[in-house]
UniProtKB/TrEMBL annotation:
This is Histone acetyltransferase. InterPro entries: Acyl_CoA_acyltransferase, Bromodomain, Bromodomain-like_sf, Bromodomain_CS, GCN5, GCN5/PCAF, GNAT_dom, PCAF_N. Residues 700-770 form the Bromo domain. One of its GO terms (molecular function) is histone H3K9 acetyltransferase activity. It comes from Xiphophorus maculatus. The lineage of its organism: Eukaryota, Metazoa, Chordata, Craniata, Vertebrata.
């Protein structure tokens, strides 16, 4: 393979945005990135998977043992006209003859692939992915000069080769599985920040967190030196222990960046202080040297952080890394000096590693760093939509809806107190600053601030057949086509181009410095009341800045303005997490009759929807939440100041009193305490029976109650009663109700809840049964509240 990669000791690169993680270069090519290498391999896989089935069989036949009668020992079909070694994926010939004899055993190609006749297309494509990984490792083995690295490559090569022969998934066989040391590097750095900087003011502490994230990011992409290189540099070091960690790093962190058949882990999460000690000195020296050499290329806002604060941070961390008595590496670190418990929460988390692109039969392709979505073009809409070209979205643009005039709900808090606190919160000087890399900052905070400063802009654009072409918009459309093609390598460029330039599609484009860096392509169906999201991606060097979230928020406000309040998209398994964060769910609110015929149902994909609330200003939502938190904080502080009065202890117990009402304790009501709300317990047995019978009948009549009407049959669900120890169903509840078993509402509610809990425990979240349980549970509690058995 021309794109094979050799493992070399890399050095960090310092780019315009600060310190950028290094990646192994392509065999002898310095500066190639891991993302670029994996993207090239992913493109080759996409090309092979799009080939006709006979071509796929020919490719797999090379790695399949002969199944002909007579116990043939041939372990792979060999063509009479052998291709170059290793075999290439872009063979020019498209004709495949299954009767062509093998050059080794003389049996036909068909004899080598008989076991693949009934294999699904999805499984065949998975095996083809493993084949390309095998060929990639084959090249690595031959190009790698280091003996230890070559041995690991060869072992992984044999592992993947074996998995193809056995049609299984490759499993690394090792004495230990990740994580290999606790606490991990990530946890140790978290502890370090807590240990050394928890006393600092908020602004300075956020700076430290930014530095810690930067450091963790560097480790995750750092290229370890080979054991032989380390032996030459540090002769007295424990080379055996280092070799073990180096092998683990290759198998679990480095090679899986390019061979996505293998599971991928982050270095900072599976290794601990031992590995960090072995790389810290060299890493610190190279990082600082690189920063000094390229200081003129750093933006002004990053220069002080990297050249001044980062060296101090590394020096302090170095002391704790090599100290034998540092508490940050202790499992008991959570116990403070005073014996109290330090609150447990993650201060920093390393930026997520881009997941490899696995094959899916879903129509959705995902940019793994931005978790975007793609779905094919649908059937033409019955109504042609208007296509405003170059419509700009402004951050300050108001939302036009009557709900903006809604009255404020203040509960039992006096209005004058609310106004007083609001006046305090409105003063920017009183709101604590939050670092953009804070664990508590909003995902879109950085993007929102950049938009306010004019660094980025958002425009809704599209092609038009009725208007004179606009050169700038056409350039942006070309830029969007390039971004989507680069970030979504599994999607054919022709397909992306067709949709981006289709007049029925529009794209919310993200513009920075006059060029496109991201966008969301969508198609509106006004007559059906929903919009389909087609592509969503941000260019790789502009990721992890909140642009994806801010793009989606702008798209939501744009649709609220145009009175379309539902999004639909098909997502594969790697896009589901992204859409959940943006408010999407598998519970589709749009009636099926509205989208059937417009969006096709694809096997292996998950239809997700998002219902928009016209009362929410989405681009400013995180700011509103932040202010609300500050209001609550101020109210709590004022309340605490009012109740600091100390009351004498209770003396009634000395006089023989054994129990008193909680509300009689002096000062208890001043704290805001209220008696716990309780539902009405019906004391009349006949009244309770009548009420429960009515509720149970409503539940049984519900359209989603059908899975729970009778006990689960063993023939329909094998193993059900091994998983569910206490089964329950509506028929059993009816019998219990008839026999007057339910003497209290709690017994009745417990049995009903057990039905829903059992269903969710046994069935997968995407199953129809799971969805029915959720819907019926909501309906049940609505009826319980209506009957007054619990408080509303």
């Amino acid at each position: 393979m021309a794109d094979s990669v050799g493992i070399q000791q890399g050095s960090p690169a310092v780019g315009a945005a600060g310190l950028v993680p290094a990646a192994p270069g392509a065999a002898g090519t310095e500066g190639s990135s891991a993302a670029g290498g994996s993207a090239r391999i992913a493109a080759k896989k996409a090309q092979l998977r799009s080939s006709p089935r006979p071509k796929k069989l020919e490719k797999l036949g090379v790695y399949s043992s002969c199944k002909a009668e007579g116990a043939c020992k041939c372990n792979g079909w060999k063509s009479q006209n052998p291709p170059p070694t290793p075999p290439q994926t872009d063979q020019q010939s498209n004709t495949v003859n299954l009767q062509e004899p093998c050059r080794s055993c003389s049996h036909t190609l068909g004899d080598h692939v008989t076991h693949l006749e009934n294999v699904s297309e999805e499984e065949m494509n998975r095996l083809l992915g493993v084949v390309l990984d095998v060929e990639y490792l084959y090249t690595c083995v031959h190009k790698e000069e280091d003996a230890d690295t070559k041995q690991v490559y060869f072992s992984l090569f044999k592992l993947l080769r074996k998995s193809i022969l056995q049609m299984g998934k490759p499993m690394l066989e090792a004495q230990e599985s990740p994580p290999f040391e606790k606490p991990s590097i990530e946890q140790g750095v978290n502890n370090f920040v807590q240990y050394k900087f928890s006393h600092l003011p908020s602004k300075e502490r956020q700076t430290i967190m930014e530095l810690a994230k930067m450091f963790l990011n560097q480790i995750n992409y750092w290229q370890l030196e080979t054991p032989s290189q380390r032996r030459q540099r540090v002769p007295s070091d424990d080379v055996v222990g280092y070799k073990v960690n180096y092998t683990r790093w290759l198998c679990y962190c480095n090679v899986p960046q390019f061979c996505d058949s293998l599971p991928r882990y982050e270095t900072t999460q599976i290794f601990g202080r031992t590995l960090l000690r072995s790389v810290f000195t060299v890493m610190r020296k190279q990082l600082l040297e690189q920063a000094r050499q390229e200081k003129d290329k750093l933006p002004p806002e990053k220069r002080t952080l990297i050249l001044t604060h980062f060296p101090k941070f590394l020096s302090m961390l170095e002391e704790e890394v090599y100290s034998h008595s540092s508490p940050i590496w202790s499992q008991d670190f959570l116990v403070g000096a005073t014996g109290g418990q330090i609150p447990v929460h993650t201060v920093i988390s390393a930026p997520p590693v881009a997941r490899p692109i696995y094959y899916s039969t879903s129509p959705v392709s995902v940019d793994p760093s931005t978790c975007g979505s793609v779905s094919p073009a649908r059937k033409p809409a019955s109504v042609l939509e208007s296509n405003p070209v170059g419509e700009k979205r402004k951050a300050s643009e108001p939302l036009h809806h009557e709900e903006n005039k809604r009255p404020k709900v203040v509960g039992d808090i006096p209005m004058d107190l609310i106004n007083e606190v609001m006046a305090t919160i409105s003063d920017p000087a009183t709101i604590p600053e939050t670092s953009l890399l804070s664990a508590h900052s909003a995902r879109d905070e950085a993007a929102r601030l950049e938009e306010r400063r004019g660094v980025i802009e958002f425009h809704v654009i599209g092609n038009s057949l009725n208007q004179k072409p606009n050169k700038r918009i056409l350039m942006w459309l070309v830029g969007l086509q390039n971004v989507f093609s680069h970030q979504l390598p599994r999607m054919p460029k022709e397909y992306i181009t067709r949709l981006v330039f289709d007049p029925k599609h529009k794209t919310l484009s993200l513009i920075k410095d006059g060029r496109v860096i991201g966008g969301i392509c969508f198609r509106m169906f006004p007559s059906q009341g929903f919009t389909e999201i087609v592509f969503c991606a941000v260019t790789s060097n502009e990721q992890v800045k909140g642009y994806g979230t801010h793009l989606m928020n702008h798209l939501k406000e744009y649709h609220i303005k145009h009175e379309i309040l539902n999004f639909l998209t098909y997502a594969d398994e790697y896009a589901i997490g992204y859409f959940k964060k943006q408010g999407f769910s598998k519970d589709i609110k749009v009636p099926k009759a509205k989208y059937v015929g417009y969006i096709k149902d694809y096997e292996g994909a998950t239809l997700m929807g998002c219902e928009l609330n016209p009362s929410i200003p989405y681009t400013e939502f995180s700011v509103i939440i932040k202010k609300q938190k500050e209001i609550i904080k101020k109210l709590i502080e004022r309340k605490q100041a009012q109740i600091r009065k100390v009351y004498p202890g209770l003396s009634c117990f000395k006089d023989g009193v054994r129990q008193i009402p909680i509300e009689s304790i002096p000062g208890i009501r001043e704290t805001g305490w209220k008696p716990a709300g309780k539902g009405k317990e019906l004391k009349d047995p006949d009244q309770l029976y009548s009420t429960l019978k009515t509720i149970l009948q409503h539940v049984k009549n519900h359209q989603n109650a059908w899975p729970f009407m009778e006990p689960v049959k063993k023939t329909e669900a094998p193993g059900y009663y091994q998983v569910i120890r206490f089964p329950m169903d509506l028929k059993t509840m009816s019998e219990r109700l008839k026999s007057r078993y339910y003497t209290t509402r709690k017994l009745f509610m417990a049995d009903m809840q057990r039905i829903f809990t059992n269903c969710r425990e046994y069935n997968a979240p995407e199953s129809e049964y799971y969805k029915c349980a959720n819907i019926l549970e909501k309906f049940f509690y609505t009826k319980i509240k209506e009957a007054g058995l619990i408080e509303k």
